[in-house]
Model the fold of this input.
Amino acid sequence: MDDFVFHNTTKIIFGRGAETRVGEEAKAFASKVLIHYGGGSAKKSGLFDRVAASLKAAGVSYVELGGVAPNPRLSLVRQGIELCRKEKVGLVLAIGGGSAIDSSKAIALGVPYSGDVWDFFTGAAVPTEALPIGTVLTIPAAGSEASTGCVITKEEGLFKRAVNSELIYPRFSALNPELAFTLPKEQVANGAADIMSHLFERYFTNSRPVELTDRLIEATLRTVIDAAPRVLATPGDYDAWAELMWAGTIAHNNLLNTGRVGDWGSHDIEHELSASYDIAHGAGLAVVFPAWMKYVYKHDVPRFAQIAGRVWGVDNAYMDQERAALAGIERLEGFWQHLGLKVRLSGLGIGAERIPEMADKLTNKGTSTVGNFIKVGRKEAEAIYRLAL
Ligand code: NZQ
Ligand code: ZN
Done:
């Protein structure tokens, strides 16, 4: 096991009515907050009003900024920064999923910074300060409610880039599984693919031995494989949503990469897709991950055979290990298709035209690599995109 420090500082408030407790939580940090949300689902469902009432009851005032798009944009982040400065906001409260939360995180980083917030995403500057953030989660997916990550798209040039900092761990996140009941099926499936991908990114490691975290990841994967079809079949199944929502947080709160170095190449490969084609992150991962797996499995056939046996139930005892590995990848594709996901770019209406451009942007014109399990440079990235066609 590799040495590690684990220090996740996000307080999780989990269960029915969790959103009505955010006023008290917010009050500990600020007397005025920005409520930041997406395209309207929070207003339509009445969630916004419940959150606003909770703030009011705690004596916390608010300003609001909606309109966060999936794959959140830098221009709205800039607006949010200006608004927070003008209104002297002390905490950013996101209502939504990864997009509203990441946009909130970027605003929180930008408010105390005198330069351009995009500096943090290019690596030109490292964050040293941020406003506190709180979240009300409405979709189990990105895990941003308890992560150090923040992913923003700059419209000019279509650059989708991430920054990681412990400063943007939300101070509190309210997780009420009932809030997910209104999710469209497509978003449920995208979310499940993202959660599973966060687990795969951690599973495919060269660190050894990693038995405990292997087992924890496998258990979380099996939970998602059980719960996702149940919530699709019965959108009001609270218990299944509760499993899925907690799995989504656990998958990305850094617990499951303790003692190991994860891969993360597929996330970078996917971010170029969602930047170029504005597809949902989870939909892109459902295409990229099987292709990445087929490209890399020979690097560690026993690891792929292990996950095939323990997670997908492939009976690998009498099977050639390579056949077991490939059977596991096939079962993953079958499961994602069962959820309604496309597992090929063609299914998303995407062809080969922009592959060289995406591989170029991914690797800074071939000068850098992504991933740790194997290093993916421009040539490898092109091959993976082509395998995904
Ligand atoms: O905008 P609204 O109207 O709320 O609609 C949203 C949006 O259209 C809808 N939705 C969410 N909750 C709903 C709902 N509709 C009805 N009922 C509800 N309860 O779902 C759509 C997708 O929302 P979004 O926030 O975009 O989803 P997700 O959580 O998948 O976030 C995706 C973003 O997170 C980034 C992705 O790259 C992408 O930009 N990621 C962030 C990470 C992080 N910060 O740690 C890690 C991830 O790997 C990921 O990269
Ligand atoms: Zn993800």
